[in-house]
Amino acid sequence: MTKISDFDQQILEAARENLRQFVLRSSQQMPKTGLMLEIGAQGRTYLQDCFAAWEIESFDLVDDFKPDYVGDITRHNPQIPDHQFDAIACMEVLEHTVNPFAAIEELRRLLKPGGILLVSAPLNFRIHGPLPDCWRFTEFGWRVLLKDFNIEELDVMESPERELFPIKYNLRARVDHQKDVDPRKMEFLRI
Length: 191
Fold this sequence. Notes:
This protein is an alpha/beta fold. It has helices spanning about 5-30, 45-50, 100-110, 140-145, and strands spanning about 35-40, 55-60, 70, 85-90, 110-120, 150-155, 170-175.
């Protein structure tokens, strides 16, 4: 088993606090009630704490934590109707999927028109479980993944002394079911 370095442990604690602050801030900027789906909760509670008035259902690949729905977020899940949720939280999950583009399409299908997606993933962080840990997303990658959403907040946790290599990103984005952006035609600002 690989030992976690002191640096990695410090970054992990800071990243968890960063995510908690993002969730808290999002809860203050979103409607006070609604139906939310949490992807891969695995026993975490800060979403439930910050969105206490919301009804929160859970979705996971395995039944270990007794989710409301068991399935693969990278595939169509017919047990959940289209446009079911006011919000979906998919935090620290996409890097573990085999097809993050398909996952975003399924999340988009599940969101009501104008629904909110809370999503996060590391960029500059060690490989971690649950395995597989397949992906890292830059700001540009997020913009491509969320091409059919309107990004309301892109929260960047910067790396100490490493410009242009953030530790992680948290995003709040509103689905737009009318959008159908061709990512090959997207334009990006130079750094």
